[in-house]
């Protein structure tokens, strides 16, 4: 068995296969950098997002509805008080957390979550709040966004500030079924927030130059639409491009670059098929007025956190995009040239479902893993070797 | 062990792992088509290329210097007589075979090989001959190309006719060392055929509109240059684009689209590192006047045969590009959109080193594998299931 496997697995993958438990201390080899997987903190329940504060604290959301603090390499036992109630079932929960660009002076953090709204059904909707993080507690300031959406899962929920202080965030299609008249699917309808990237000011107000601001019947917060369930969102460090990964159907997880007013085609066009039975969803992969993905995964990896690398610990990886995968249990490194993905390398695999990938202020790459039965450390970082 | 593996391997790969010997009869699942791997013929010694003749015969080159015939599902015991002596050591040997577009009337086939030339060192050079294939024998007509090159391996050697009857072929960089003044490397020098795509008429004469025809000091056959070792070559069925895969260094196997007069940068620019020690080759990934790859593999797969699929047995794969891999032991399916590779799926893996991938006239996909110790059938075809 061992021999059959070694025929076609290489590098980082092999290390994972042959050291399923002790892998943290092993060197993983990739094309440009070798690294170790080093534990950061453990004891989380489905950590969803990682945020770094200037004083060295690390905030971690747990899907179940808790915000946690990692301080000096330890997970503090008490969750941060002041977090509102979330829909903690299915795909719902506490999701992304990002500090305001001026956090050092205003102590503001932004949190996305599935908000209970009994009038919208048990699954509620996607909402974003802001508040101050002081003395290890969260004090709500206000809600800056609440999606006009209803349905099941597919909340989206990633948050990203660009260099000009605009807040981008994602909302999924809420699992609206891709059947019947596909052009009438909620993700193709601008009068709601199903399957969109949103762009707002940090106080929740709508920028005047948003593409649909002032258009009758359209939600003015929408920046782009026709998405399925974007759960990775990252701003390109050089040109400010809004990059996202979205869960597609089977064989259809996509990388897109979101531009003002663009329609990304879900569910009218696409490359994937239904998870059950492999039946067809789309009539076409292309249509006039609908954007093509920059890249997509076959098979789908179940995309999660997304980050551009800008640090100095892995110089050959600067400018690369790192994408997490749930089902794939992987972190993929994507090489971007002129707005295209020209190569993809799986640098980490087999340590558990990956929920988030971030660059730390120290230049290490942090990965949030879902805890497995063996109690393996769920937040790790990659440190270069040699 | 089994469980650890199943965490991150899916579909076709799993089938290969768990049925290393009997895999031919198992169904392999991919995003769009399920298929079986069906034996075509066995008993080859490193089959390098597959060609289909209108009467149903299949020609297969063996690297050792033999041209073989598969007729009615059987490998005929006698090699085709009339094949010239080849350099049958190292990377050298009998390589590609393609029928002339008018084979049905002229019975002409083209063969590329490493040609012994003691004055050029033991490894000789890359040459292409044409001759008639009749009564199961080859009769040489003439040599249509002989590369001005010397060195070790990296012969290149793929052949492809386009719809207008031009013959494209590849020559590698002959392993000239990428050290010292990289801009002075033979692959950057138009006065030889190291690292080029060549374009000639079917009789070996040079088309007047070749990009360097008439330029003093330049080889007029050159269509594009700055390649390393292109061993996959295929003409796009719709637009006639000249697609190639080339062996790069570690983490640098590339897909390129060869255009008239373009410089693909080897060894001045690139994405890979040296196989030994991972040391740096290139100072940059970009340079003015040098082309970027359309796609590259990290890690490198050791690219081999290349084919666009146009058949009706796998309708969802029409227009896709299929690339073989030696070290990767894989066949990858590449989805092309607007001249870009937007997705890549490994559809076959773990059955042995893949030397060639071709579409048969029956619409099945044929794969030449290097025979392994267990005597497994080295030429197989993929047949859809369900």
Tally of separate helices of chain A: 3
Global outline of chain A: globular
Helix coverage percent of chain A: under 10%
Low-confidence stretches of chain A: 1-24
The chain-level structural class of chain A is mainly beta
**Strand segment count of chain A:** 25
**Topology as H/E string of chain A?**
HHEEEEEEEHEEEEEEEEEEEEEEEEEE
Largest interface: A-B, 45 and 45 residues
* End-to-end gap of chain A: 32 Å
How much is the radius of gyration of chain A in Å? 20 Å
Strand order of the largest sheet of chain A: 1-2-25-24-23
Largest sheet of chain A: 5 strands, antiparallel
**Fraction of residues in β-strands of chain A:** 35-45%
What is the chains' assembly state? homodimer
Average pLDDT metric of chain A: 91
Q: Your description of this structure?
A:
The structure is a homodimer of 386-residue chains. The first copy, chain A, is mainly β and 386 residues long. Chain A has helices at 2-6, 11-18, 103-106, and strands spanning 27-29, 34-41, 47-52, 58-62, 66-71, 74-75, 94-99, 108-115, 125-134, 137-146, 159-161, 167-171, 196-200, 222-225, 229-235, 242-247, 253-258, 295-297, 303-308, 321-325, 330-337, 340-349, 354-359, 365-369, 379-385. In chain A, a hairpin with a 5-residue loop joins strand 16 (242-247) and strand 17 (253-258). The A-B interface holds A 1-2, 4-5, 7-8, 10-11, 13, 16-17, 20, 30-32, 250-251, 271-273, 278, 285, 292-299, 328-330, 333, 335, 337-338, 340-345, 349-350 and B 1-2, 4-5, 7-8, 10-11, 13, 16-17, 20, 30-32, 250-251, 271-273, 278, 285, 292-299, 328-330, 333, 335, 337-338, 340-345, 349-350. Strand 22 (340-349) of chain A pairs parallel with strand 18 of chain B, so a sheet runs across the interface.
